[in-house]
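Now for a sample.
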Amino acid sequence: MKPGFLGVLSIAIWAVLLFSANNRLIAQDATSAPSRSASAGGGNLKEIVVTGGIPPEDSILPVAPTDAVLGTSANILDIPRGVSRITQSQLQARQVEDVVALTQFSSGVFTGSNFGAPSTPVIRGLPAEMYQNGQRLSYTFDSFIPSFNGVESVDVVKGPGGPVIGPSNLGVGGYVNFVTKAPYFDRWHGAFTFTLGNLVEGGSSYLRPEWQLDFGGPLIKDKLAIRVSYLGREADTYYQNVKDQTQDLFVALSFIPTPALTFDYTAQFNEERFNENEGFNRVSQQLIDNNTYVTGPITPFFFGTTFPVGGFISPSADGTFHLVKLHNYQTLTSPQDSDYGKRFLTQLISKAQVSQDFQIVWRTLFEDTQTRKNEAYGYREYNPIDNIFDTRLELHWDLHLLESTSMVNGGFAKDGKTPLSTTVENPGIVNHLVAGVSYRHEENRAYQDFTNETFVPYDLSQGPNFTVLPTNVIFGGRLIPGSGGYTATPSASVESRLNDFGIFAEDSIDFTKWLTVYLGGRFDYISAKSHQPQLGTFLDGTGGTLDATPYRSRNTLNPSYFGSIVLKPTSWLTAYVTYNKTNSVQGRTNFGSIPNDFKTAQLANAVELYEGGLKASLLKNTLFASITGYYETYYQYDRNNNRLGTQTRGLELDATYQPNRNFSANANFTWSHSNYTNAFNVFTETSDYLNAFAPSFVDSNGRAGKGGTSFLAFSPNFQGVSFKNSSPDVTGLPDIVFNAFATYQLDCGLGVSVGPQVTGPIYANPNKTLKIPAQFTWNGAVFFKQKNYEVWLNFFNFTDERNFSPSYVVVQNDTILPNEPFHVNLTIKLKF
């Protein structure tokens, strides 16, 4: 789609919005227009009222409606999907800064280390996506860490998107929707928050200053308001050579020219400097169980080359292996490691209430992201172009069928003789229709070099020494034109473009006050092309220039179907069953772009969801509880173009309780299990962790080393893990996860919070020969809150447990990430 056409389309839609609102309802007064949080379908939404005098800023109850699931605002209690709401109070109190922390608030969520910089969560055992106000952001695995600076609340939606929201890329497990901060129309006010840390036991404390200025107010009374949030962080981390730095500016504007017409605009720019953190290499069961690390040089393996492509650890001269204890901060990170990313993100949401039963909503989002990485152990990434333009036009219409009125005998007048009657309106069958069109354009150019991504040569007990192999050996790719020295391999270099033209319709049919049926459908026409861009010489100047390959173009038509039945026997109880069948576009794991050798089938990967659940609002809307069961299947293509399936099933329980302003608690429990289908081999860089050790090595689980015992018995060997059957388990995930947190605050403002995070045993490699035992972490805080300030002393892992996070499946036989020990930080918040 050319820019000229986009401009014409934008002008046309703006004209429709302005004409409809100003000519049909410009004379409406404010009392007749629905509130900005009302249903997009004309005000049928019933707000949940909470008692107990709980200030909005302290509430953890999921009472605010969301339009991130059905495309029209609905209370979470009435949505036929598993949804968890994380409020601003929870985000601030628990210092949420990354997607890993979302596990503590929602069932179905568990995210491993993802190279120490996870950008997207894992929901129901599958990758997920990130959204903002109902629109999908770019997919990134670990290249850019999402910002929470402009976030007011978070919706965790389990399972793929519905007909209005649309299909996903790689993230078919669900999505995390950021609800952005809204401007203040009442008066000017704000807050300055400063956090200082972290004090760590054992003398490993580090400086971690972070500051945020969040303020706003009306510019034109009842018409125009603004909100600005700036976040800065120039921090070290607990782990050696790992930075955590950001500069982040978020701006929101709301304009209400008439009560029937609203414009909500946001813009954000942030840049980040951080590092991948692989954790410990030379992983073994005794490292997990006893913190015993095998030191010493490797016996190199040359594989017909002049430089070693891997190897294994041999015993010392006396025939023994030297074992040492490592600190958790002694991870595989170098002083030369450098990761950088920047993102500009802007969004406009326009709503025109044309009549009481008809509304037009238009959402437009643009995103520009650039990232680069240089990891001395053997990984480089250069991503100069990652752009998204996404727009969606929605028509919301409430249609009453079989509507009627009747006269009911109302007794007699005071004289006892004159009969009285009352008119009763029967709404009939109410259809809440949402229909519209969408367009999404993605453009990406990305390069990677992991020619010799080898882990075993480096001895972490000797410090961050990454001179074992020369740079031109570690990075065997070609120079990227205009990158300043970055290299990439041809197979991992891609320039791609994707266009998605969508049309959708969804109908929520209220047959009675206790029976609602949801039906929806969507068609997406996908047109994509990609190729390998031009590359330069090798680092030593040889090889000449490698020309770009011709574009490969493919297109397909993806249908999606949705259906739910909702029973509401009482106002406080909802039961539902849901079926979704969608098709997702399979992008590259790191960036979501289209591979340069993709097939048409990769544009239409089938996702099927069966789900049922119960939701309840109890004790005068102070206790919200839900139980959900699901079964989901997903089919994609592996790196060898084999069709690979994944199926996951589980049971999820969530509960939130807040009877008054003094006490609140939330808890969630997950049982889930995931396995592959049609899979006899899963790619890993090393096929067995024992290939990194000589045969005389015997692990604490009784298994002996395999290094040098066969032609490919070394690390890494890039052979993957083979299975005896086609349905092996997905590893790196616990079957059991439990979280709870409780807060009690005295009337004077003094309070305490405490809660555990518990995970069941985790198989830490596809071979299921490494196992992380069941783990728990206790976190808490002591705080003092007053009208104009707050002080928080936060305690993390205060029982000082030595826990681990599993690595991404590709390197599970090579690395594992140790979590931070007990640490403390201080937060001061000044409100004005």
Q: What stands out?
A: The CA atoms of residues 297 and 313 lie 6 Å apart. Confidence is low (pLDDT under 50) at residues 1-47. The chain has four helices and 43 strands. The longest strand covers residues 379-401.
